Amino acid sequence: MRGKEGKRRREKKRKKGERKEQENKSGRKRKTKGKRRNRRTETRRKKQEKGRGRRERGSKEERSPKKKKEEKRGKREEERKKNQREHAKTRKRKKKGRGKKERTKERRKKRRRGGEGTRKEKEKKEKEKRGEGKKGEKKGKTKKEERKKEEQEKQDTRRTKKKRKKKKEGRKKGKEGKGERSPEKKRRGRKKKRGKEKKERGGREKKEKKEKNPQIRAREKRKKKEGKGKEKKEEKEKGKTQEKEEKEKREEKERRKKEKEKQNPRGKGKKEKEKKEKKEEEEKGRKKRGREKGREKGRKGTDRRRGKRERKEDERKQQKGKERRKRGGE
């Protein structure tokens, strides 16, 4: 008997092991004693924390009812602010996700309910369009309607077809064309348009009122006139100040020049002479300069090009030069 008992026990154990293995394979998780124990410790910890908070605040006798009230109010305020923040976040999310997301949700709902999104529903609608499935009605479209459609297609030029195609594509992409907009966006657009029209209307009415009123017209005219006079005055003053500044600059330059000359009297001779000559050349002008250059190279300008006065002056200069050379030779 004893041997049989042991055999039975071993068999039981083996079966239990197999069962456990099977459970592990299937991924079924069993609640163990350890888990329960852990949960108990967690609750204990929470209770302790609660108590700690109370201990830190002080005993019930120490805290006056006024203090308690203030604490409660503070908590409520904090809660309210937190809720406000959360609400704002959700609102923002909703705002962002409006349109496409909402539409997809609705479509899914309809599909679940077997609404217009399903294939069956679409087929049903198409049948109704064709006139099938309804008793006492003609099946298919009449020849007249078909002929009309064909004529319309013929009339459609290549351009209109292209346009229609582009519009369709744009609606698909939501980039090239406007496509389907959310009701919120549509509402906003309408509001904006109304505001713009109102503004324009207001401006027009104001203008018309002004034009009709003679007093306002006269005032506007007077203002315009005064403004013009003011501008002229300002320009005049500006011109005067500019002249004054330029004069001061010139005077300052001259003063500096004189001071420099005083400081360095020897080195000025040659430079001054060159400057003077340069100035004289500039004053004589292009033609005269050309003549002088020609003279330096040993060429004489033709009498035809010269005026009488200039010719006489040249002769006088030549005479003077000859006399100077003569004196130098003596």
UniProtKB/TrEMBL annotation:
Biased amino acid composition, Basic and acidic residues: 71-87, 114-135, 143-158, 197-218, 228-264, 271-285, 310-321
Biased amino acid composition, Basic residues: 1-17, 27-55, 88-113, 159-175, 184-196
Region (Disordered): 1-330
Top-rank taxon: Eukaryota
The protein, known as: Uncharacterized protein
Organism of origin: Pleuronectes platessa
